[in-house]
Amino acid sequence: MHMAPLPATKDVVLIGGGHAHALLLLKWGMRPLPGARLTVINPGPTAPYSGMLPGYVAGHYSRDELDIDLVKLARFAGARIILGSAEGLDPVARQVQVPGRPPIEFDLASVDVGITSEMPDLPGFAEHGVPAKPLGAFARRWERFRSGSGPANVAVIGGGVAGAELILAMAHALAQQGRLGQAHLIDSGPVLGQASPELRKRLLRAFSEHRISVVENTSVARLEPGLVHLGDGRVVLSDFTSGAAGARPHDWIAGCGLQLHQGFIEVDAQLQSSVPAVFAAGDCAHLSFAPRPKAGVYAVRQAPILYHNLRALLTGDPLRKYHPQKDYLKLISLGSKEAVGDRFGQQFSGGLVWRWKDRIDQSFMEKFRNLPKMEPAELPAEHTHDLPEALGDKPMCGGCGAKTGRGALRAALTALTPPQRADVQPLPGDDAALVQTGGVNQVISTDHLRGFVLDPLVMARIAAVHALGDIWAMGAEPQVATANLILPRLSTQLQQRTLAEIMQASGDVMQQAGADIVGGHSSIGDELSIGFTVTGICQGTPVTLAGARPGDVLLLTKPIGSGTLMAAEMAGAAKGDWVAAALALMCQPQGEASRILASAHAMTDVTGFGLAGHLFGICETSDVGADLDLGSVPLMPGALELSKRGLRSSLFTENRAIWPEFASSAAADLLFDPQTAGGLLAAVSAKDAAALLRQLQAAGYCAARIGIVTPQAQDLRLV
User: Fold this and answer.
1) Predicted local confidence at residue 1, as pLDDT
2) Which has the closest alpha carbon to 708: 521, 520, 548?
3) pTM for the complete prediction?
4) 385 DSSP 8-state letter
5) 256, 284, 400, 619: which is the annotated catalytic residue?
6) Are residues 594 and 717 in the same domain?
7) Same domain for 145 and 227?
């Protein structure tokens, strides 16, 4: 008997991508909880691993080696990922505030956002200093600084072990480049005052070896460009000044209504806050039952307890207690590939210790680099002989990658009888219909997308932009829209939450385009599908596929590659920052581009048939050909690399059949990649092309000139 997908009934929201939450996502992916819908909120698609930061700063690791890819990890865990910074938490209303979207509601939440080392009370630090935490922002700033040239001076404010590790790494990296000028470690008290005498002695020797000056028992008065002014009147030269003095909680935590200790969320042995539905872990939490210093090792050890207790509250099982160790092994990098170890007052150092630390860190990160492959469900023992062929060798894509092929669609449309009404004007090849209403040209189109991201809000934005594409491609002004939604099986409460997100996001897109959502239809199915029927008004003659002329220049307003990227994301093969960039491009409306291109002779939006298929549509309808400059076609980040690795959307093969004589290559194959919410492809007068391209780029579009229209009918060539 076929079993329908089980409905989700509870929302579990992870705020922050810290170490405890990363490990929780890994465990969740290997053992999901039916009925629970998991969400992770993080400012960006990756989360740096603190243990490898000094090695990254020193130049021993690349940025990719430093980062945990949260987009991949969330896909593995079956969790939606929201890329944004939490700015508020209401434990009574059970909502999380993230800018640019409605509140995210939860049944259970956990906070693991780390700490900050900002220095708001130090004049000039906000403008000229770089907090060591959050790690991601620091790593980006350091990467830009390290890629510079010429002599460089650096300073770290905060003379604890973390500050010592940081200045050693910075000095080593700059010395390896031959750029090290001055390096200073500054503290208002004694440098390494909390360290044991033996550890302090070893680190001071490392400072001397790396030409680092120690400035202790001296406050910092202010920062200026290139200068650190000390409280005693001295001045230290520094082109890159970092703050590593102490740990501060993020400001928004103070207003969340939870019991705090010096701004950190107090938790009990079960890692629950003063509101039992809200947990906290890592550096942002204060262990009220057993206070400990801020260190990543505690977050790692908290992960199994947090994972168990969140599930236990949902299943009715008993909770477990976290028992923090009294001391832990400290492995401190010394800039070069040497490290010092410290535990229970005993020290050991050298290259062997660094290799030991490296092995521990690499082992931790390997868990996230090579996520377990989840095997697809086996077919029933008895099935039709051609069922495996119909299923194919990879999952069906979402978005335009899930559309029917051009051949099947054309065969079905050919069988339609011509319009019988005088007020309906046939438009061969165009996706929208043209209707005469009271002397006004009205265009109407409909489109819907099978969900390919788990965040309904992002999916709604993309679907709305996608549905508007046909209206914009005809040079029309969007007028009204109706929604057609299929929701997966959800509890009534989760239905309300999901519908609210979808309607607010799509309503915002439509209103910004000048249209109103006036109704629609919703139903329940196996998976999310979002679509819209949209009308638009043409103030002049509609732009169609039929007007391209020999000599016209072809302009494209968006890069291509979304089908390949989303197929790779489903397979866990796309980097998180590539996916984030692709989603941002798919959410970009084309209304302003449509207005700029109002004088185009022919125009279409690039969607399911790929750039080659839609260009062929213009050529076929206009009875012209085209020379396409493959090297000028803009590509989404990562698309070419994935294409070289043989990754393709499930619709690629049918699209490729449109023009089989095209030579196959990684770049050429992307011309047949189905696009979702793609850009506009316009044939414009050669004399206007340069000015129009400048206007498009000034309006924020990654637009490009990609070819010319030729007189040879339906002759599509690569040049």
Assistant:
1) 44
2) 548
3) 0.91
4) T
5) 400
6) yes
7) yes
Neighbour count for residue 648 (Cβ, 10 Å):
24
Give the residue from 494, 499, 502, 498 showing the smallest Cα distance to 461.
502
Q: CB neighbours of 462 closer than 8 A, spacing ≥ 6? A: 399, 449, 453, 583, 586, 587, 676, 677
Task: Give φ, ψ of 672 to 5 degrees.
Answer: -105, 10
pLDDT exceeding 90 applies to what percent of the chain? Answer: 76
**Radius of gyration (C-alpha) of the chain in whole angstroms:** 29
Which residues, 6+ apart, have CB-to-CB distance to 42 below 8 Å?
Answer: 16, 17, 70, 81, 82, 83
Residue 443 pLDDT > 60 = yes
Q: Is 587 a catalytic residue?
A: no
Q: Predicted confidence band at 417 (pLDDT cuts at 50, 70, 90)?
A: low
Residues 565 and 508 in one domain: no
How far is the C-alpha of 359 from the C-alpha of 51, rounded, in Å?
Answer: 11
**Is 154 inside any structural domain?**
yes
Alpha-carbon gap, residue 636 to 558, rounded angstroms: 9
Which residue range is the domain that position 221 belongs to? 125-243
Instruction: Please write the tens of the pLDDT for every residue from 466-498.
Output: 999 999 999 999 999 999 999 999 999 999 999
Q: What is the CATH number of the domain that holds 595?
A: 3.90.650.10
Pairing of strands 278-280, 260-261: unpaired
Pairing of strands 336-343, 346-350: antiparallel
Same domain, 107 and 149: no
Total residue length of the chain: 719
Instruction: Read off φ and ψ for residue 379, nearest 5 degrees.
Output: -70, 155
How do residues 105-161 score in pLDDT, each as one tens digit? 999 999 999 998 889 889 999 999 999 988 888 999 999 999 999 999 999 999 999
